[in-house]
Amino acid sequence: xIENRILSLRQILRDEGVGALLLWSMPNIRYVTGFTGSDAxxxxxxxxxxxxxxxxxxxxxxxxxxxxxxxxxxxKTDGVGSLLADLGCHRVGFEGEAVSVSIFNKLRSQSADSLxxxxxxxxxxxxxxxxxxxxxxxxxxxxxLHQEALEEVLPRIRPGVTERDVAFALEIALRRxxxxxxxxxxxxxxxxxxxxxxxxxxxxxxxxxxxxTIDFGTRIGxxxxxxxxxxxxxxxxxxxxxxxxxxxxxxxxxxxxxRSGVELKTIDAVAREHIAENGYGDYFGHGLGHGVGLQVHxxxxxxxxxxxxxEEGMVFTVEPGIYVPGLGGVRxxxxxxxxxxxxxxxxxxxxxFRTLPLD
Length: 359
Prior knowledge:
Layout: H1 2-16, E1 20-23, H2 26-33, E2 41-44, E3 49-53, H3 58-64, E4 69-72, H4 76-87, E5 91-94, H5 101-111, E6 116-119, H6 121-127, H7 133-143, H8 146-153, H9 163-176, E7 187-190, E8 210-216, E9 219-220, E10 223-224, E11 227-233, H10 238-256, H11 264-277, E12 289-291, E13 298-302, E14 315-318, E15 321-324, E16 328-331, E17 334-338, E18 343-345, E19 355-356
Parallel strand pairs: 1-5, 3-4, 5-6, 11-19
Antiparallel strand pairs: 1-2, 2-3, 7-8, 8-11, 9-10, 12-13, 14-17, 15-16, 17-18
């Protein structure tokens, strides 16, 4: 598998007419080498590959990395610059979004005018777009922890409990079941705060008659999960229930529209048009979804601007939402994998409207 990923890099090298590829971001480095440390660089040419790291990770690299030659550096930019000079390359493809301006200036100053630097972010992002069966196992295992963890926490979701209490309890429940880490700062947005798409948990207390949006995930084997539920704490206003039903229908229609070859923007449009037809078009501002893998947000993106099509093996979220300032909001999210027949959900919590008791 690793060998095939190196071959994919060499295809990029040929297609883009560069003499070497420089991988800087740890998710991409892990993908092509299996290395789980936190500091390294990979350089790939047509005939060779080099793994560079510092003294902390040399032993670990020798255990995990089976690609090319392992070299130690004291200063990362010096090690990269020296290697590229030895290779005699003239054009180097690199991850422009992963390399800071400061680092890039150091690399460029070392090479003077002998190297042309070619940002190839789109090529690198697509590299991880189609998930192998081993990747799907980790993704499904991570997502599979959600339902039990949430059920453990539900009795705590009562009036007077803070959003932060809910987030912490959910994180502990996931870790207890084998989650390596939380995928991100959990969103627990209750009442009017539900109108904040990224309303991370605060010390606000939950209250009866509110909707509570919970966006959470974990990590297994380096692969992340992401799911959102919106729950009613006691009886809620009929207007909030209409919003929920609208979002759920948009979510279900979008998932039903997933087919190999369909434009990703078309799937976004299915959900967006349903929300607009029900009068809430101005309250759904973000894209419908994003890829999930070694990063919580990665290729592909589902939005009106998406240029790609569904391919079997892609994993992405479907997460329509309606956010009304002063009132609240609803988001419903599942992770799916595109299949030959359509799609399969990796997350398993029921998205039917659910009312929690007040005592």
